Amino acid sequence: MKRILTTAALAAILAASTATAAPLKVGFISTLSGGGAGLGIDARDGFLLALKQAGDAGSEITVITEDDQQKPEIGVQLADKMIQSDKVDILTGIIFSNIALAVVPAAVKQDKFYLSVNAGPSQLAGKGCDPNYFNVAYQNDNQHEAMGEYSNTLGYKNAFILAPNYPAGKDSLNGFKRFYKGELAGENYVKLGQTDFAAEIAQIKASGADSVFFFLPGGMGISFIKQFSNAGTGLPMMGPGFSFDQDVLPAVGDAALGAHNAAQWSPDLDNPANKAFVEAFEAEYKRLPSVYASQGYDTALLILSAQAKADIADHDAYHAALKAADFPTVRGSFRFGNNQHPIQNFYAREVVKRDDGVVTNKIVGTAFEDHVDAYAAECPMK
Amino acid sequence: MTATLLIEQLLNGLQFGTMLFLMAAGLTLVFGVMGLINLAHGSLYMVGAFAAATAAAATGNFLFALVAALAAAALAGALMEMLVLRRLYRRDHLDQVLATFALILIFSEGTRWVFGSFPLYLDVPKALAGTVRIGSLSYPAYRLAIIVIGVTTAIGLWALINRTRLGVQIRAGEADREMIAALGIDIARLYTIVFALGAALAGLAGALIGPIQSVQVGMGEPVLIMAFVVVVIGGIGSIKGALAGAILVGVTDTLGRFLLPVLLGTVMEPSAATAVGSALASMSIYILMALILVWRPTGLMGS
């Protein structure tokens, strides 16, 4: 009898809450196993933290989480399943650009919103932009561009630049070169997945470079930082924010101290929303949030803000509510440009050791204010 | 390009080669003696690295970390052999590949379950940090230490196989397993010992590489592919072949990455030379393997 009563009470509560806003189903496809899992897990944890903090508004949102195993074909299967059988309204969560490129165009054609928590390939920012696609993170080139710009402030004149031989690696070095004004001591593409850089480090030493810029995702970057600091070149390191983020720093420790990098967010970014986010994340998960966690968190906040204003059944109204980007971002300021990619600041960060021994980033300058990505002009949307 | 740079790159190739040898030796031993293809050999490398990182974090002593890695990998290998692989010796290679591939997934997700998804911290021991001067060349002390440990292990392994009773049994097992069983040698025990030995070598490689690479789930698979190339080049089942193949692959890969863009730069513009050179360099060891197999279809020392 008691159980029936509680069930009835629960049903009543549920009925009451659904009366205020339509329930929403979100499909979260992310990389949760294999070598790239750290990034997907952080984005997911950030996303779920925001929903949890939202209380009732968050509990109206059902999140279906699936692991793409860092494989595009699995991502496509999962997206089909979520759209056709789970009937999700919004898809999000993908970390890697090659998976996003496989999933997003088909999903947005079926009139589902896709909100990117990380991947920002140029194809979806320029001619391939779409009203149903929003990027809440950055365009892929941005962090490299910002580091290129800030390297001029740091006074580097002869940088050696290094990236893996795949599309994002080439975009990275091109992004850096777009704003860097000095000479290049060398430019090197390594095999994707390579983890021994002795040959490249010897070349950097012999090249007479005054600094090294690299974009080496995941374990590649960890290996490079350890080997480079051990080779005793004494040259300063710089890279995009994700080469020196909270998924990398605990594994390299002191080897990364003093390195500069650029990102649109940092754990010490001074605004109340960010302070609350970092504290809550540390309390919930017992680790510092990474840039991926901040992006997952902001994405969930964006959905909550749209949810408060519009009903998902009214596609145009919901689109307008998303486009308004009226949410308390942890980045301080955030708005969407014509291609529905962020217009936001990029900060130069330095890797430091806190008094408690934790190695993390500290903002040392601003590389760009209200930066618009290089492909926005090619997008026909207004 | 100077002579110093060339010597440094040769040392880098040698260091990479000795590390590959530690991986390939176990693989070729297991294949030679038991006729088993073990795709999960990379997982034992990962076990070694994780055990070393955990022991180093707990004690701060790198030697202890090495011992822990050897023990953990040997134990994991022995368990793997007794619980799973023992049932597969009589099956064909496809079944073995399928089962050991499943073991990779089990080891990977098991490791994530225990250690989490983020890479572990493992640093070069204090005594071996920094560089050593050799003439005009300053070379990382830790990489030199890897070369020394690798070469010492190779000599030790040679002595074990050629100078001890266990070695005689291993060689006999390779030649004719029915016959040594008939002579009253406990073949099941011998197989477990050989497998644990191969696993310990993989674990040692993982522990030695951990401080200069990323200790993370899935770290073993790229190395495994290279180790298979070494085994095929050296001749399946041959330890000497594995050593020769490993040094050859290590030096070819390193010098290819370094010299190909430079050489191509003399005939084409720099950016194209970098792109073509790095693409060719990543293929260099496979081209080497193809050439050697055309010349000697059973590998350098295969029979």
From TrEMBL, chain A:
Keywords: Amino-acid transport, Signal, Transport. Residues 23-353 form the Leucine-binding protein domain. CDD domains: PBP1_Nba-like. Pfam families: Peripla_BP_6. SUPFAM superfamilies: Periplasmic binding protein-like I. One of its GO terms (biological process) is amino acid transport. The keyword Signal applies. Residues 1-21 form the signal peptide. The keyword Signal applies. It comes from the Bacteria. Belongs to the leucine-binding protein family. This is Branched-chain amino acid transport system substrate-binding protein. It comes from Amaricoccus macauensis.
From TrEMBL, chain B:
The chain crosses the membrane at residues 20-42, 62-85, 97-121, 141-161, 190-212, 224-251, 272-295. GO terms for cellular component: plasma membrane. GO terms for molecular function: transmembrane transporter activity. Pfam families: BPD_transp_2. GO terms for biological process: amino acid transport. Its main location: membrane. Keywords: Amino-acid transport, Cell membrane, Membrane, Transmembrane, Transmembrane helix, Transport. It is found in: Cell membrane. It is a multi-pass membrane protein. Belongs to the binding-protein-dependent transport system permease family. LivHM subfamily. This is Branched-chain amino acid transport system permease protein. It comes from Amaricoccus macauensis.
